[in-house]
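tl;dr need the bound structure. longer version: we got a ligand (zinc ion) that a collaborator sent over and nobodys looked at where it sits. i said id run it. heres the input, straight from their email, havent touched it
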Amino acid sequence: MTSTNKVAVQKLLIKSRIETDTLKERELLCPECGFRIQTLYSDASGHLRVKCPKCKGIYVLNLAYFRRIQRREKHRVLDRYHK
Ligand SMILES: [Zn+2]
């Protein structure tokens, strides 16, 4: 990578970080063993292929089907499911 590219990447990293200030974080858990695979932001969508570092399973996930909000919002989310 050239130094010009490195500077451009650094700028994009900073920009990305700033953009997450207004987003909520949620955990993506392994569908098999429940291990926390990674943290997603609330604007994440689409399909993801993940490998669980714990059970070594490889899964294709549609993020719309695998939502888990942070623990402090759990009750609100459960209420929504039961309506
Ligand atoms: Zn797993």
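gonna send this back to them w/ a short note. The chain has two helices and four strands.
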